[in-house]
Amino acid sequence: MGIKIRDIDLGDFPLLLAPMEDVSDPPFRALCKRHGADMMYTEFISSEGLIRDAAKSVQKLDIYEYERPIGIQIFGHDIESMIRTTEIVEKTNPDVIDINYGCPVKKVACKGAGAGILQDIPKMVEMTAQIVKRTHLPVTVKTRLGWDDHTKYIVDVAERLQDVGIEAISIHGRTRKQMYKGEADWTLISEVKNNQRMKIPVFGNGDINSPEKAVEYKNRYGVDGVMIGRAAIGYPWIFNEIKHYIKTGEHLPIPKVKERVDMAREHLEMSLKWKGEILGINEMKRHYTNYFKGIPHFKEYRTRLVTSMDLEEIEGIFEEILENFSDVSPLV
After folding, report:
1. Catalytic site residues?
2. What total of structural domains would you count in the chain?
3. Residue 154: which of 190, 109, 126, 113 has the closest Cα?
């Protein structure tokens, strides 16, 4: 029997796509699902934005059958607003409602939402309890070790959140103060997992960027699965690469240049349909670096891809890449 969130079976060692703002949208999720992601989450949705019916927040509620199991992630600082948001989200019928207690970005955390709530653990526990009470769906949490090095209370916090009813927890191995700097510390994630009182799945997050690292952390820290964020941007292949390595101890072949161009093209097409031309082109830019990572002498093409706002020009650059790099093997 695999790892379960209530009756959702995620397999023996699930690989989760992390919720990332302006990244984990339906086009990108479709590619990650096709390439082995076991569970995915939407971009985080502002409770205040959803209650105000802000178009950007409402659009993030769109989920599709082929994505299941999928969690909708919400954030906010006001308990009443978060309860109302839960009721709105429930109507869209996700598999899970996930609460973001980990976003370190100033405009979120400094209002007491995301990782900001790590400065008020009693409120964090109370908000979670209220959300659990108001929905029939499983509630999960994504959080960090603490606000800073002096407040790494995650072992106790995870236990308290479990006691009020959450059904899985994903922990990023950094404090809010660290943002994304330095190395993620998985020792406390391991302590949460090995706490005998913990009965729910514990997923680790932070710095998983290769099949070897996924296996090393699986074995060393004993987590139930891993959540992958930045390493998946522009590289949805990572999920199947990890699965293959876990199963066989061998590496899948690195995607060739043609596969990378085909994937980037398909991703761009879906983004244009989803977001329109300007946003579709702009939000693809963060993916290009990884799509074409490891190709020698590629800098000029990368620069052109991330500066162009013209679709014909981008298509022309893709053609040039195919022409000039078709015999090149990427290094990573």
Report:
1. 103
2. 2
3. 190
> For 160-182, how does the pLDDT look when each residue is reduced to its tens digit (9 = 90+)?
999 999 999 999 999 998 888 88
3-state SS assignment for residue 327: coil
* Cα gap 98→20, rounded to integer Å: 13
Domain match, 236 and 292 both = no
d(CA 20, CA 44): 7
What is the percent of the chain where pLDDT is above 90?
81
CA atoms within 13 A on the CB side of 203: 29
Q: Are 262 and 165 members of one domain?
A: no
Distance CA 191, CA 162 (A): 15
- Per-residue pLDDT of 125-163, as tens digits, reads 999 999 999 999 999 999 999 999 999 999 999 999 999
Residues 68 and 207 in one domain: yes
pTM of the model: 0.94
Token pair 């236990």 in the structure block, residue:
159
Task: Say if residue 141 is in the same domain as residue 92.
Answer: yes
The four Cα atoms 80, 59, 34, 86 give a dihedral, to 10 degrees, of 10
Indicate the length of the chain as a whole number.
332
Domain that holds residue 142: 7-248
| Residues 144 and 279 placed together within one structural domain of the fold | no
Strand partners, 294: none
Across residues 104-114, what is the average pLDDT?
A: 84
Query: Contact, 138 vs 8, CB < 8 A?
Result: yes
Report if residue 2 sits inside a domain. no
